[in-house]
Specification:
By secondary structure, the protein is an alpha/beta fold. The chain has helices spanning 36-47, 100-103, 105-108, 132-146, 162-171, 182-188, 194-198, 205-217, 258-261, 292-334, 339-346, 356-359, 362-369, and strands spanning 9-13, 24-28, 62-67, 75-80, 112-118, 155-159, 227-230, 234-235, 238-240, 245-247, 252-253, 273-276. It has a single domain (59-321), classed as Rossmann fold. Strand 9 and strand 10 form a beta hairpin.
C-alpha cells in the first residue's frame, strides 16, 4: 500500500477555517486500487490511539485542499467537477498518476490556495435528487466556511460541464446553453437525479432563465471569464444487453458545442475563447507540464492570479466611496445641520469658574496625585 511516488502525496490544512488549526488533509495516490474502508482499518491498526479522528475517503465530496501557502495566500482557486465526474479523478491524467491541480499548478501560482469540490451526481447510481440550485447552495456554504478570515480574497472558479452551471448559480456566470444529454436521460429515467439531468438539456427553459439572471446580476466589467471548449467527439453510453451494464458504445457526439461553451456575457473577448483538441472528459486532463494545452491554461491562471488581488482592492475602494456618497445623500435629505457648525453656534461658552470647587476638593487632589493604576 505504498504511494506510487513520494510527490503524489500532498498534506494541507483542513478546508474549514474553524478546523484548519486542528485537522490536516492528505491526498495520496496508490498504484494499486484499495478500498477506503480497508485502508482506514490498516492505518488505524498502525497508528493506534492517535487514529481516533482519522478518516479515509475516496469520494471527495465537499471542499478538499490540494495546496495551501498559509498566510501568503492571495487567491483561492476552486475546481468544480462535472456531471457524473469524480472531484479528484476528473482532473487526473489517464496515462499517469499526476493530477495537474495538485502536482503542477501550485508551482506556477505559489500564493494560491487550491481546492477541488465534489458532489454526488453519479450516472447511474446516485441516490441524490439535488437540483442545480441545491448543489450551488452547498458549494456556497462550503466556500463561506473556508473563507471566514479572508472574505475579501479573490476567487478563481474552474468549472467542468455541470460544474459551470453550479458556479453560475453561485456567481451568475457560466455556460449559456446546455449539453447533449439524450444518451444520459436513458440512464437516469425514474431515478432521483432525473430532473437534474433533464435541466441540462439544450432546450431547457431553466438554463435560459439562468443565463438571463447572470446578465442582470453578474455585470462586473473588470472580471474575466475564460471559455474553454472541446473539439473532439465523445463516445456516448448505452445499455449492453450482452454485458448487462452501461458501456461506451453509443454514437460519437460533441457533448458541449462551441456555441454553448461561449457567450457567457456580451462583453467577452474572442481571445478568451480557447479550444482544446480533446473530448468532453479529457478536456480537463493533462499528462505533464510540457503539454501544450496545460501550458495555455497555466498561463491564463497565472495571469488571473496575479491581477486578481488588485482588481478586488480597487472594487473595495470604489465600494467604500459609493457608500460614503450614499451616506452624504441621505444626510442631506434629512436636512441635518453640520455638527461642527451646530456646536459652534448653538452651545454656549462654558461659564467661568465651572467645576472649580470640585477640583479643589481634597479627595480629587489625592486621586490626581496617586500613582498610575491606584486611582
Amino acid at each position: 500500500m505504498e504511494p506510487v511516488r513520494k510527490h503524489v502525496m500532498q498534506l494541507d490544512k483542513g478546508p474549514a477555517s474553524s478546523l484548519s488549526s486542528r485537522f490536516w488533509v492528505a491526498t495520496v495516490t496508490f498504484g494499486i486500487p484499495i478500498k477506503a474502508d480497508k485502508l482506514e482499518i490498516e492505518l488505524k491498526r498502525h497508528i493506534f490511539e492517535a487514529a481516533s479522528r482519522l478518516r479515509v475517503d475516496s469520494d471527495f465530496f465537499g471542499l478538499t485542499p490540494l495546496s495551501d501557502p498559509g498566510e501568503d495566500a492571495s487567491v483561492d482557486i476552486i475546481a468544480v467537477s462535472g456531471l457524473g465526474g469524480h472531484a479528484f479523478g476528473s482532473w487526473k491524467s489517464r496515462a499517469k498518476h499526476d493530477m495537474w491541480l495538485r502536482d503542477f499548478l501550485p508551482e506556477a501560482v505559489p500564493t494560491s490556495r487550491i481546492f477541488i469540490y465534489g458532489y454526488d451526481t453519479k450516472l447511474p447510481g446516485s441516490l441524490s435528487d439535488a437540483s442545480i440550485l441545491e448543489l450551488s447552495r452547498r458549494l456556497l456554504e462550503s466556500v463561506k466556511s473556508t473563507r471566514a478570515s479572508a472574505k475579501n480574497r479573490p476567487i478563481i472558479f474552474i468549472g467542468h460541464s455541470l460544474g459551470n452551471l453550479v458556479i453560475k448559480q453561485v456567481s451568475r456566470s457560466g455556460l449559456r446553453r446546455g449539453i447533449e444529454n439524450e444518451s444520459l436521460m436513458t440512464m437516469v429515467r425514474g431515478k432521483p437525479n432525473e430532473e437534474l439531468v433533464r435541466s441540462l438539456s439544450e432546450s431547457s427553459p431553466f438554463l435560459g432563465l439562468l443565463h438571463k439572471m447572470s446578465l442582470e446580476r453578474f455585470n462586473l466589467r473588470d472580471s474575466r471569464i475564460l471559455c474553454v471548449f472541446e473539439t473532439c467527439t465523445t463516445t456516448t453510453v448505452q445499455w449492453s444487453e450482452e454485458l448487462g451494464k452501461w458501456t461506451r458504445s453509443g454514437p460519437n457526439v460533441i457533448m458541449v458545442p462551441r456555441a454553448s461553451a461561449i457567450h457567457a456575457r456580451p462583453n467577452e473577448k474572442d481571445h478568451d475563447h480557447l479550444s482544446i483538441n480533446a473530448n468532453h472528459s479529457d478536456i480537463v486532463k493533462f499528462s505533464d507540464q510540457s503539454d501544450a494545452d496545460y501550458i495555455m491554461i497555466q498561463s491564463r491562471l497565472e495571469s488571473l492570479s496575479s491581477r486578481a488581488p488588485e482588481v478586488v482592492r480597487r472594487r473595495l475602494v470604489e465600494l467604500d466611496e459609493q457608500l460614503l456618497q450614499t451616506q452624504k445623500r441621505y444626510i442631506k435629505r434629512l436636512k441635518a445641520p453640520d455638527s461642527a457648525s451646530f456646536r459652534e453656534f448653538n452651545i454656549d461658552d462654558p461659564t467661568p469658574g465651572t467645576l472649580s470647587g470640585f477640583v479643589l476638593q481634597p479627595a480629587f487632589q489625592r486621586w490626581v496625585t496617586m500613582k498610575p493604576c491606584y486611582g
